[in-house]
Amino acid sequence: MTQTRFLGEEGPVSHRPPTRGQRLRHLAGAAAFAVAVGAVALLVFMAPDAAGPGSPMGVNAAGGKVGSAKARAAPVFTSYGTQLAPPAERVGVQIKQGLVSGLLFNVRTGQVLWARDPGRILPIASLTKMMTALVTVAHSKTGDLALITTAATHFVGSGVGLLPLGKRVPVEALLYGLLLPSGNDAAIALAQHVAGNQRR
């Protein structure tokens, strides 16, 4: 039981340690916050400004540049990731991991330094894992164990790689495996645990 101490009183103050369910919620919440902060930071870097490409600027009577009301209301389309950088600034990348699509550009100029099939439509990995974590926490109870199936052990891409087939693993441990090393095997195990369609 938590003790309350008023000003002028002395004595120890004890705090109840967080439960496993609270730790799971905190873990998923912290991960969601980190992704949100990263997305905002990326948008800030990519946002057009006075020196950046695609800035919708007008010119007033005194010759100074100002943003017009129409420009502020209209959607902004920038040249980020669409124009190639000068040949001397481009980079050559040799990747052996089977990367099928990628794009590298200068955040200051928006010019493309390297690209490989950048317009290819692919599933989003990190956001999918974030949603998997949030849904798992919302539909799991403290102390839940998830069965590790063949589907989880036959994953493709990044993974924990040590999940025991046919055994039950704490959901909390799988959440760490999902969010820290971006484990596809942990994602499959958690999805099957929440959906309830595991094959034995």
Task: Explain the overall architecture.
The chain has about 200 residues and is an alpha+beta fold. Among the domains are: about 60 residues, no CATH class; about 70 residues, no CATH class. About 35% of the residues lie in helices and about 10% in strands. It has 6 helices and 7 strands, in the order H-E-E-H-E-E-E-H-E-H-E-H-H. A 3-stranded mixed beta sheet has the order 3-5-4, with no helix packed on it. A two-stranded antiparallel ribbon has the order 1-2. The chain has a two-stranded antiparallel sheet with strand order 6-7. Helix 1 runs antiparallel to helix 3 and helix 1 packs parallel to helix 5. The longest helix is centred in the first third of the chain and has 27 residues. The two termini are about 45 Å apart. About 20% of the residues have low confidence.
